[in-house]
Every structure is written in C-alpha cells, then in structure tokens.
Amino acid sequence: MQSTVDFWYEFASTYSFLAAERIEALAAERDVAVRWRPFLLGAIFKAQGHETTPFNTYPVKGRYMWRDMERWCERLGLPLVRPDPFPQNSLVAARVALALPEDARAAFSKAVFRAEFCEGRPISDPAVIADAVRQTGFELETAVTAAQTDLVKHALRKETEEAQRLGLFGAPTIVTGDGELFWGNDRLEEALDWARGRP
Amino acid sequence: MQSTVDFWYEFASTYSFLAAERIEALAAERDVAVRWRPFLLGAIFKAQGHETTPFNTYPVKGRYMWRDMERWCERLGLPLVRPDPFPQNSLVAARVALALPEDARAAFSKAVFRAEFCEGRPISDPAVIADAVRQTGFELETAVTAAQTDLVKHALRKETEEAQRLGLFGAPTIVTGDGELFWGNDRLEEALDWARGRP
C-alpha cells in the first residue's frame, strides 16, 4: 500500500516555498503520496508568545535565512525577490487553498508561492489569488466565494488547531502516517524515506 | 589546493554532537579539511536576550528535538542518554579543547560528546574531562593546567567573539573559506559540497 504524508505549510514561509517546489518530485521517486495542508503558523507563534517570525525578531538569523534562500533558489534555478512586507499576510491564500478541491491545492499553492517569492507580489492581493486560481483550471468566482464562507474559515481554524495539537512549531513540517514529525525543507528527503514502505 | 572549513561547535549542543560524529568521514570523502572550533553559544544567546536554549524555552520545540535525536542516534548506532541538567555547563570542556593542540581537538571533543549524550555524564566533572583527554594521548595535567591560564580563557573569549562577528546564532555552524555559513547538523553535506574545490 502506498504511504501518505501530510505536508503542512504556511504561505508566508520562505522554506515552505522551497518545500512546495521540491516535494512532488521527491515523493514520486519514493512512491509516497502527499496531502497538502496549509495552516496559519502565525497563530501558533502568537500562542508561544512570539509577535512575528524569529527571522525578524533576530536579525542575525534573518540575514542567514535570506542568504540561505539565495543559495537554494540559485540551485533550483528560481529568481528570489523578497516580499515587502515580510512576512506576508497569508490568511486569504490559506482559505482559498482549503476551498479548492484537494487535487487543485498543489498547483494553486505553488503559483501563490512563486508570485510571492519569485516576483515579490503581495499574496493578499485579489489579483494574485485570481492568477493562482487560474493555474488550477477551477472557476475563480466559485473558489473565492467558497473561501469567504464560514465553512472554510472554520476548516482553516480546525487545521491550525490540528497542527498545534500535533506539536508543530514551524513550517514546513512533514508528518508521516505513523506520527513522526520532520521540520524543515532540509528534511524532506529524510521524511519521505521514513514514510516509504510504512503505509 | 585542499579546501578548509571551520566547524564551530558548542559542547552543550545536541546537534553539535551529531555533527562531531559525522563530519570527519563526510569531509574525507570530499577531500576537505576541518578546523574544530569550540565556542560558547550561551554567550551569544544571552546577547540576543535568550536566557537558555530555545529547546527549553519552547517545550514543543524541545520535544521535537529529543525525538529527532532519538531517530538520528538510532541511525548512527549510538545510544542516547539525556544529560541532566540540559544544557550542560560547557565552559571547562571548551577551554580544555582550546588548550589542546589542534590535532587532538577532534578526539577530545568526540569523547566529551559521547560521555555527555551516550552516557549522560556531567561534562563539567573533572573525571569526564580527564577521560576525554586520555583519548588524545596528551598528558592530562598539562592540558588541565593550560586550560586554567588566562591565555586560554582569553582565547575562548576571542573565539566566541569571532563566532558572533561572523553571524553565528546556533551550533553547529560550518563556515567555508569564502565566508558562507551553513547552520545545523543537517547541512554538513551541503556545506562540504560547497567547500569542495573552493580553496
């Protein structure tokens, strides 16, 4: 039986962007299925007493992260543009991602991430969301209307609560079927290796 | 010409222990030389306003780290015993490491780390330090006496200042000859790949 992992990501997160770019090919190589699960890391940070991302609170950590992103993007052949402000407000993107059918979530999410980190576009801008929905082939209006319903707002709150319950404290985090957590874009291979053959 | 990287590590740090176990073989495979540079991460944490390691400040992060350590130690075939208290006071170990000749530093450091994380022994205990010095073939008394001199105390302060100047905020960190930083045991391969062929 094929294993499945949960890919928990945050639209404002630089390393979630890298992971979104990489995870599909790495999972396919190992015959592992991936469930895309956006959540709001900011809510978890706030519960821990953080006002913003540690990359802003600790400038030395922030400088390292941006240089690390430059190296990674160069390796992946992607331009890197720092969004301003950073982090971006990811609420609408996360709601639309959840409103879309599961099989459209990857395409939508990758499009949002590229707009944000390769073009520096604001992901709370309806035009950016619209462009990303168009990548999925689904109707824009249906998705945006659904994203504004209590049903989807509730679903996103539940997902974020679930992330917190699982012990997530950063993004991206892979959770395997047997409940192991692997935090960080640099742990994708390890997480998928772990998952392979453990249905 | 052979490349050299600086391996900055902290004796109280779990991931520095893993890196100390792994770095020599990985560097040899790539024909990269490694300079072992112990420093006091606690001093840098304090300058950033942290009272202790984030693994204690944020229990959810600490739980993840210890589980991650279990997985890594299992993979490396090493027992894992959590030192109590964590983090250990690493001052004496760092001073003795600097007092020893450079070519003895790796053997000493690995012995300290194993006592700490495989046997749960307190690394501020003179008996633990003595056992580790014995691994190097150097005379115990010479090393311990040297470690108490102002010369070595000064050297450790300078090393820690240098780490801070370079922008280090965690351990282990690899710094390549061209000034790139790679933070974390999970970045050793990447750091050494970067260094290879860049003298």
UniProtKB/TrEMBL annotation, chains A, B:
Location of the active site: 13 (nucleophile)
Molecular function in Gene Ontology: 2-hydroxychromene-2-carboxylate isomerase activity; glutathione peroxidase activity; glutathione transferase activity
Swiss-Prot/TrEMBL GO biological process terms: glutathione metabolic process; naphthalene catabolic process
Domain DSBA-like thioredoxin: 4-190
Ligase in keyword set: no
Catalytic activity, as annotated: 2-hydroxychromene-2-carboxylate = (3E)-4-(2-hydroxyphenyl)-2-oxobut-3-enoate
Pfam families per the UniProt record, alphabetical: DSBA
Enzyme class: isomerase
EC number, UniProt record: 5.99.1.4
UniProt-listed Gene3D superfamilies: Glutaredoxin
InterPro entries the UniProt entry points to: DSBA-like_thioredoxin_dom, GST_Kappa/NadH, HCCAis_GSTk, NahD-like, Thioredoxin-like_sf
Keywords assigned by UniProt, alphabetized: Isomerase
Family designation: Belongs to the GST superfamily. NadH family.
Protein name stated in the entry: 2-hydroxychromene-2-carboxylate isomerase
UniProt organism field: Alsobacter metallidurans
